Amino acid sequence: MQRGIATFTLDYGKCPRWLFDRMVKLGREMVHAIIAEEGPDEFVKRIADPVWFQSLGTVLAFDWNASGLTTILTAALKEAIRGEEQDLGLYICGGKGKTSRKTPTEIAEWSGRANLAPEDSRALVYTSKMAAKVDSSLIQDGFQIYHHSFFFTKNGAWTVVQQGMNAANVTARRYHWHSRNVRDLIQEPHTGIASQTRLPEVLNLTAQQSAQTRQLSQELIAQSYKALMKDIQLLRRHSGNLSQMVSLKRGQQQLTLLNLENTEFDFHPVLTEDFSKSQYLEKILWKLCDEQPESYEKLLATEGVGPKTIRALALVSEVIYGADPSYEDPARYSFAHGGKDATPYPVDRKTYDESISHIKKYTAKLKNNFS
Fold it and tell me: How many Cβ atoms sit within 10 Å of the Cβ of residue 65?
């Protein structure tokens, strides 16, 4: 599966109780069958695949293209295993809105019951918090995170499923992470697929292409606060009127001109960025310069650092020092096996056959449970 994001229309309705109760019952049987066949680690791995997650939601009879699939499916699975977490070796934390903010507490409580080492429990809590920060600050796509769920097992395998909403275009976007795929919480950490909509401009600081921007952002706060604010003030003076921008090349004394209206910059966020005086931004930049975080990850993890701080450092790195980040939307199209007309790619027969084989195993297990 390719890294990516799933996008759906916002759903303002409620799931009727009669349907939710049935989703819980069928979900319970499917969880039992999958874990009995392949174990809890494999289950959370499959949850990390946006196509498989989407398919599970439709099997349980929820609308395939509605944002509610994410929130209701997670809630149904959480309810389905209630009281059986220890026996299954599977734990589901968080959820929608206020419930999402309880995720760290729930992780800590279940980690204790699962007899995980304290340092492993703290690592899971940290990962949960960082996943939310990365998808709200490093991928600036206009979607506000409102759902965050954390699946983990007694063996320490974990999956994050979170969703953001964009009220302007009435869509939701889902983000998937999995422990086996994550080598770096900052650079390209996502697993899976899919999007119905790809946006023309997204500041994507998780991309490998953005590595220099991340490095320069860290270097900017490694200097004095006074030196950093000179760069910020330069952007403020030219904000909203940047057809030409004076750019100081690092390590040189001469000034050169950077034209933001040439073909390279058909659009640029700094043209519409509001760099008016912000005491909060200045407070956070002072804090960063004072604390000197040892890595970009620690910079992002610093309390108070959010999208605006990250964006300000990224734009200084690009406009003044020439480090070009990625503005490509990391979303991918939502096809599991391809299409007969080769859109977005020809049918993947091997994967298709494997899917059929897995479904046969699960349905056979369900038949045995009901017989």
Answer: 14
Q: Show me where the domains of the chain are located.
A: 5-197, 208-320
DSSP secondary structure letters along 10-60: ---S---HHHHHHHHHHHHHHHHHHHHHH-HHHHHHHHTSHHHHHHHHHHT
235-244 residues labelled b (16+ CB within 10 A) or e (exposed): bbebbeebee
Whole-model pTM: value is 0.81
Continuous segment of H or E residues that includes residue 220: helix 211-222
Helix axes 307-315, 211-222, angle to 10 degrees: 100
Query: What residue type is assigned to position 222 of the chain?
Result: A
**Residues 49, 245: Cα–Cα separation, whole Å:** 44
**CA torsion, points 229, 234, 240, 242, in degrees to nearest 10?**
-150
Candidates 8, 334, 1; CA nearest to 165 is 8
Q: Quick check: 137 and 305 in contact, CB under 8 A?
A: yes
pLDDT, tens digit, 9 for 90 and up, residues 239-248: 544 434 433 3
Residue with the two structure tokens 């909060």? 280
Block residue for tokens 């904000």 = 239
Task: For tokens 């174990």, name the residue.
Answer: 39
Distance CA 273, CA 296 (A): 23
Tens digits of residue pLDDT in 4-55: 445 556 555 677 788 888 888 888 988 998 999 899 999 999 999 887 888 7
Task: Tell me the C-alpha distance between 103 and 113, whole Å.
Answer: 15
Angle subtended by helix axes 211-222 and 279-291, to nearest 10: 80
